[in-house]
Amino acid sequence: MIMYILQVLINGILLGGVYAILGLGMSLTLGIVKLTNLAHGEYIILGAYASMVLQSALGVDPILSLFISVPLLFAGGYLLQRLLVNRAMKDGAESALLVTFGISVILKDALLLIFGADARHITVSYGNESIMIAGLSIPLLNILLILISGASILFLEHFMQKTMTGRAIRAVSDDTEAAALTGINVGHMFALAAGIAAATAAVAGLSAGMKWTWYPSSGGHYLLIAFVIVVIGGLGNVGGTFAAGIVFGLIQVIGGASYGMLISYIFLVVILTLKPQSMFPRIKKLTGGRGNDAGR
Amino acid sequence: MMPAGDRTKKGLIVTGVLFMVLFVIGITGIGGSNVLRYGFRILLYITIGEMWNLLSGYAGLTSLGQQAFIGLSGYALAVATTKYGLFYPLGIVAGLVISLGAAFVLSFLLLRIEGMYFSITTWVVAEALGTLFMSLMYVNRGAGMTVSAEPYPRIGTLYLMALVLCFASMITMILLPGSEFGLGVRAMRDDVQAAESLGVNVKRSRRIIYLVAAGFTALAGSLFFLNKGTIYPESGFDIGWTISMVFIVIIGGSGTVAGPVAGAVIYVFLSEILAHYPGWSNMILGAIAILMILFCPQGVIPAIGAAVRNSAKRRRKGSDGCRELDY
Q: What domains appear along chain B, each with residue ranges and CATH number?
């Protein structure tokens, strides 16, 4: 019995890696661009389809498909932000939110039209293999997925902290006007951040697609998961996102298929209600720092 | 610019005349059942559009979760009529009461949350309700429920009910901005802190707006599902309801009474035309909405209004140049 509980808990923690990568892109867009990208769920589904198509077209392991799907989604995310969302953000946060809502609707139906309504899954030969560690049976896939997620998060953290571009992106996020005065192209940086967020969605799509089946309409489901994780973990906080992923993974294994999501929805509403402001120190800074043009 | 009182009076007169004309169409059934069927849909979409407009355009509460009340009232109607064998108007009343109760409880949670987080959380609440109904045996889980009524209301009756509901929502929207309460609400949308310091009870005003919107949306939801006859968790708590509300208000013009009317007419006819291209309709609606936000953010009604004013100004300018200052 104890062994069984231990096994369930370990799998919940390992699944946390997948949930963390689902939330990572959302956390970036919210933390840096100050935008709720309602199309992020569709980006994730797009990533899953991209890996599926590349796997069957090239006959390679789906993990290798990331070398193509990540740049592809990065480009898509960059262009949508640069051409559409940046323009709407001039009219205020609400217009931008509604534009991403429109993008989400368009992508969802485009995917339905191209791939049909069938359930999909990325199948790999090692998908059902398990490793025995100290008498516990742990699925190989879960270990692989937390490694992918951990590597992506470390890479991103390094990029944001150590590279010139990463610093410029953070500067724009901290004080848009001051960054613009130093000659940083704000529109370009916002688009880069959105592109990176979309690139993480490619990784998230692959991970989720290997773990669960999906439909063209699953984007909303993943968007809400991402949002819950961002709220639990805090904005732009990479370590927090990882911890939140693990909490979420545990909620899912404890609540099971029928109540896992419901519990996390309730969890989210309770957190937001109890700590509506203190949860998001950076949002507060935004209203003070960037002035009314951002709030309107 | 006309004084606010005159505009309210003019709005009420126009609305009253329109109501009489549409009422006569409903009673006599001129134009046949197809006209009534289109009219029914348009009237209900105007209602939910006006209510989303009230939340987002007037009070700054951009909700993405109004489908919660459509689903709740639709299910209340189905449960009351099928499980308890009640007469359908009682089912509609039950839906209204349950939705108002839910909105009252939710308002204590949701109205504490600001901005984008409010938007997402409203959506989460609606999704959570959908998930709950999916696993609740009481409402047949995912298998859905039917609405029973004996005799089943004809399209003419449905049309008249929708007409009354729609005009009640429009009159609310016409009277509200001129009233002291409405002025407070608009002040609150523009600057919460300033409004609060001037004595507007922000919490109470927001709660009232949220409840009014929930009530009308719930009634519209009951009528939708009374016409449809069946309800499932995915159809009741569908984010698609919000998509249509957003589209209607953005196309027509946010913050005006006439906006959602134009928006709903365009929406119903456009989706009818687009039904011939299955799969493409939402994509085209989404693209139109994005283009409107980027290039015509005020919506068609204010844009037409501005164009008319401009041409009138140009004509006046021909005869009397001094009038130029009067804008």
A: 4-317 (1.10.3470)
